[in-house]
Amino acid sequence: QFSGTSSEGLFHKAIIESPNSRNFPELKTAAYGLPSAEAIGASVFAKLGVETLEAARAMDAQDLTNRAGFAPQGTIDGKMLPLQIVDAFDAGRFSKVPVLAGFNSGEVRAQRAFVPRPPESPEAYEAAITARYGDRAEAFLDIYPADDVQGSILATLRDAIYGWAAERIVRKEAAAGQPAFMYVFDYCYPAAEAEDLCAFHASEVPFVFGNLAPESLPPNWPVPDGEEDRGISDALLDYWTSFAATGRPESAYGPVWSPYGQDQSYLDIGQTLASRTDPIPGMFELHEQLVAQRKTAGESWFLNIGLGARPLDDAAEEQAE
Predict the structure, then answer these.
(1) Which PANTHER family match (predicted)?
(2) Full set of structural domains in the chain with CATH
């Protein structure tokens, strides 16, 4: 609702953890590689074997999800969500409030269904990226190099889904004159490291709420149970609550958290807390360009990235036709 109109005036600050600015279905027309929301609804009704909304609502919830699956997402309906998120921010149609936003360094480690199979060699990876990105391949490989293929694949998806979106929101709010604070959660504790889940999606949540006890966590969640974990949690709890109260994140347990501003300041939440600048050099600019190209070609800008991307030249040629 941050970029919608129905929430105007309902909140005075915003904390946005691991945001996603992908394209969503539009109500009546197919757009950006997605069918219309009405077509999606008709497909769901076909799976359910019903013809009316009343009949669907009367179904047992478990039976309904067993048949139709569960894939909730927004609809660009011109009312609740008047525009695609990127278009709303570009048009200045978003809540102008102080914002705290960021992402986790290992976001997709717990979302392996999104992750494509790695090529057989670094050379094959480099060739695949070059074939997809043409004259942008060099810039892409500078950020996501072939010397760590698996790490680059994970980082590509992390940034395309979460990192670019977080930095875009912070930049837009800062440009609108609002206090804007960015973080990167890069903290890893032994139980997460043992499962190759360092800084996975949502792993910051127990820390910012101070709920590290096993009984507070979902099943199979790696439990942070050390003194260092509690120290990080104490600091984040301070930062988050002080921001909610005053619009400025402060903690006696960590450094001064500077606004994003001209030098692209952010809080690095690693094994120690540190104030740094420019979280991933070149990342925002690259994804901003790639999303603009996908939009111009009428394509999705969600998972259409890295090894899962269609070649940019093919997309441009089809749009021209």
Answers:
(1) CARBOXYLESTERASE
(2) 14-22+77-320 (3.40.50.1820), 25-75 (no CATH)
